[in-house]
Automatic annotation (TrEMBL):
CDD domains: crotonase-like. InterPro entries: ClpP/crotonase-like_dom_sf, ECH/Chromodomain_protein, Enoyl-CoA_hydra/iso. Belongs to the enoyl-CoA hydratase/isomerase family. Gene3D superfamilies: 2-enoyl-CoA Hydratase, Chain A, domain 1. This is Enoyl-CoA hydratase-related protein. It comes from the Bacteria.
Length: 269
């Protein structure tokens, strides 16, 4: 058990749960590092067939912890995570490339709010299951930021360019039911879905399917994207770094701290 991530393995399934419900599981670098450690451990565990990722409480992950950003060394710690990602032996780089490298299917159960980096993580999972009432958003433009690692590459490939443009350029909130209509996630029919309902939906994967065949199929899909993915990651890092150093992002953080809408340049009436 980690303070920010709980890990439980039973009957061939590792359940990873973001465990900062008081902050709606807002992401910190320590939490992100714990996630990578847990997925890499499950990757080499012969008893694990499937990994389920979800959140405790009302949220999956409600974005980066802007309180931690304002407080200090958030980006210094995140830089160490990026260096770790770039040192990974793989045919491509990426902050979340280890999701694709994992030979086990990774399923995101979006039990509640998934915003910003919460959606970035969900896109890097192999399957997304969603609660119909979950509140989702690619919030980047509302924070004065470019789309981060892999998002502008993966989302159009999952739901088409037009729908991806709508969601990314507006940063609007949409529901789990909307996500299912876009083809972004599979809706769980249970009125109050939980981990058990999510596992029941994918039960055939760990009851009837060959782990070796699943490994091969997952690799086939991800490897078909690799060459373009690395180029997209490098572009995203450049754009995110520039936008993160902008006056607009500073204004977004200030607006969050002061509990008011941000006053971005160019939006004056």
């Amino acid at each position: 058990m980690r303070n920010d991530l709980s890990v439980r393995t039973h009957a061939g399934v590792t359940i990873l749960k973001f465990s900062r419900p008081e902050s709606m599981n807002a992401m910190t670098p320590d939490m992100e590092g714990a996630l990578r450690d847990a997925i890499e451990a499950a990757s080499v565990d012969p008893d694990v067939k499937v990994i389920l990722l979800t959140g405790e409480g009302r949220a999956f992950c409600a974005g980066a912890d802007l309180k931690a950003v304002k407080a200090g060394d958030y980006y210094e710690k995140q830089g160490k995570l990026l260096a770790r990602a770039d040192a990974t032996e793989a045919p491509y780089i990426g902050r979340f490339s280890y999701f694709a490298l994992c030979p086990k299917p990774i399923i995101a159960f979006l039990n509640g709010a998934a915003i910003g980096v919460g959606m970035t993580i969900a896109l890097h999972c192999d399957i997304r299951l969603v609660n119909s009432d979950a509140k989702l958003s690619f919030a980047f433009p509302r924070l004065g930021l470019a789309a981060e690692e892999g998002v502008a590459f993966l989302l159009p490939r999952l739901i088409g360019a037009s729908a991806a443009m709508e969601l990314l350029l507006s940063g609007k909130r949409f529901t789990g039911r909307d996500a299912a209509s876009y083809g972004l996630a599979t809706l769980l029919d249970d009125p109050e879905p939980d981990e058990a309902a999510a596992l029941a939906r994918v039960g055939d994967m760990f009851d009837l399917c060959s782990p070796d065949a699943m490994r091969r199929i997952k690799a086939q899909i991800w490897e078909s994207w690799l060459a373009e993915y690395e180029t997209a990651i490098r572009t995203a890092r450049k754009e995110v770094m520039e936008s993160r150093n902008s006056a607009d992002f500073a204004e977004a953080v200030a607006g969050f701290a002061e509990k008011r809408p941000p006053r971005f340049q160019g939006l004056e009436s």
